[in-house]
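DM from R.C. (forwarded with permission)

"hey, sorry to bug you on a friday — could you get me a structure for this? deadline for the figure draft is monday and I only need the backbone to look sensible"
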Amino acid sequence: MAGYIQRDVYLQQLIDSRLNGFAKVVTGPRRCGKSWLLTRIYKDYLIADGVPEEDIIVVSFDLDDENNQSELADREKLKAYLYSRITDPKRIYYVMLDEIQEVDGFEKIVNGLRNKDNVDVYVTGSNAKFLSKEISTIFRDRGQEIRCNPLSFKEYCTGRTESLRTLYGEYYTYGGMPGLLTLKTPIQKAKYLQDLWNTTYLTDIKERYHIEKDAALEALADVLCSSVGSLSNPTKIANSIKSIKNLKIDEETVKLYLDYICDSFLFEGSRRYDIKGKDYYKSFKKYYCVDPGLRNARLNFRQQEEGHIMENIIYNELRNRGYLVDVGMVDSREMKDGKSEYKQYEVDFIATNGIDKYYIQSAFNMIAEEKREQELKSLKKIGDSFQKIVIQGDDIVTYTNEDGFTIMGLYQFLFNNDILK
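My reply, with the result:
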């Protein structure tokens, strides 16, 4: 197998879905490695597993790829080409269509291929046409999403010999976009990430949705990057844009632009959940960037809040491992100076996967006694039997404290996919 970062989590998802009758839809932000995953890593796996290379049909519509086959972006031409390759009913053909959203009416072609008994079809896409909620509709309830993100910290460390502290410093600053691996200097890395924002991500959103208020979209991206790890809602964001950027924007426009940015896989919103009341708060969410380096680059590397960036990295890791992640809130009545007062405590993450459930606190530093009590108090207020975990920014051996909470180091969490269990 070729000597590159294997992306084992995503590769295994592709392997598990092979020949299942569904169209496999690999989604994620541009330049995160979707094409490489599908047309190099998975293709190499199939060849190593005995599939003849001529039975793997790859067509790329990625306009940034010098090998793109944009001349096939016409639906009828693409259909004629593919069916000219699929000629033997006794052979299994693997069709991989990269950035298929560039083809108008691609749904008809993909569904037609999927209905053939001897074709296994895979596509990649980077925009709102490939939202999770739309995939079943587009592919007639026979589409399966595989979400691909930038490199995790564990993947980023593949083949590296530097200390974990050094590598985490790099990852914390520049993130895990695969294109960074060929760049050597901080200036090159910073420019690469900023160019992604300016010439790829925001330009793509503006053109796709015909946005006229460019400055408002740019301001929203800045506010989201600046406020990772903080509860926000459209009203709060609109007020921030007005006070910081001196731009007037209404809440409805904020909601719309938030959808655009999240639909482009650049941010995700984590909903606020009342743990004791067992219900969601309607408006407030925490927004996390898909990559810490993209977040930092958007702010010109000025705001390096280690605690918030660590929280963002933990959120991304939980999502990569397949967990749904909410922000937890615990209401409590407490006596102070002889009076009863109402207080709310926040649990950074409630992570669930349909089988397991965890309450998780991200604690950059718990050396000070006051800070330790602050991080643990919200977990103590929950009162149920699900596992409660604190992830520290220190490199420590995992242990269980006197309250039955699991305390683990950040590196231990990031390197061991099964450590929560």
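R.C.: lifesaver. The mean pLDDT is 91.
me: no worries. DSSP finds 15 helices and 14 strands in the chain.
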